[in-house]
Design goal:
5-stranded antiparallel β-sheet, 9 helices, globular
């Protein structure tokens, strides 16, 4: 029943008005994302503490999503700062980086970005825990991709029309606890995934405000609604503005009062119809 209500909400929003063209890179990947404040923050006049970056750079697609900790004094600034520094460092990975060395390159880029961000925080005179944030990053190269994940949130991928959760939320001893890039021993909780992308047709990165609606954590399965959103972009029924409306909708808000971020990277219909081996 809950799933049907989400389907109805998606169809309702997709059916209203015209859509604007989102960024499409030369390999026909559609790039979009949206962040909205959750009810728990908007009622108190607190701005959204999520932040995301999408970069189309030298035949690479880079996306970084950060969720500032609700307990952190400067959560919004932490999410903004880390997502920007990390996306900048990921630009330095060569577009032809071999998959054998990609994991090391991703880790090294994260180390450098973290050092730069922590130095910026040090200059404020505040403790870095005041800027605590989770991290989920994705890099798409011509033949393979990489993911960096610390904390909750999730990454859902579409492989030749089949949805799969490829990086799940990671919590601490309690359901409302997670891990942050700002922690001293952050490297103990990092997950780096590298895979061939020959069958990859879509990626969704999301913060924990979206996972209750789009990911079944117990079964580690994606909701079919993710495919509806992917196809909405392919069929020109959805754009960034409609995606934002969807995140603000009652059906998504009822599943979590937290801030919500959803980044969508989906292979265009033209590229899909040209065959499975069309890569970014």
């Amino acid at each position: 029943m809950k799933g049907l209500k989400i389907f109805d909400q998606i169809q309702k929003i997709f059916s209203i008005g015209n859509v604007k063209d989102d960024l499409i890179n030369k390999a026909n990947w559609i790039l979009s994302g949206a962040s909205v404040a959750g009810e728990s923050h908007s009622k108190k006049g607190i701005p959204c503490q999520d932040h995301f970056e999408i970069v189309n750079h030298n035949d690479k697609i880079i996306s970084v999503v950060c969720d500032g900790a609700g307990s952190a004094k400067y959560a919004q600034k932490g999410a903004n700062l880390f997502s920007k520094y990390i996306s900048e460092e990921l630009k330095n990975i060569p577009f032809n980086e071999p998959i054998e060395s990609l994991e090391k390159s991703l880790f090294n880029a994260l180390v450098v970005a973290r050092e730069k961000a922590v130095y910026e925080l040090y200059k404020t005179g505040n403790d870095k825990k005041d800027f605590a944030t989770t991290l989920c990053a994705f890099v798409l190269l011509p033949d393979h991709y990489g993911i960096i994940h610390i904390g909750d949130g999730a990454v859902v991928a579409e492989f030749d029309e089949e949805l799969k959760v490829i990086s799940s939320p990671k919590n601490g001893s309690y359901a409302n606890e997670t891990f942050f890039i700002t922690e001293n021993h952050w490297y103990r909780n990092i997950r780096i995934i590298t895979k061939n992308n020959s069958l990859l047709t879509g990626i969704a990165l999301m913060t924990d405000g979206m996972t209750p609606a789009l990911v079944n954590s117990k079964k580690n399965e994606s909701a079919a609604a993710v495919k509806m959103i992917f196809n909405g972009f392919r069929d020109k029924q959805c754009d960034t503005e409609k995606l934002k409306q969807l995140l603000k909708s009652k059906e998504f808000g009822s599943r979590s009062s937290d801030d919500k971020t959803l980044v969508i990277l989906v292979k265009n219909k033209i590229a899909n119809n040209n065959g499975r081996n069309v890569n970014a």
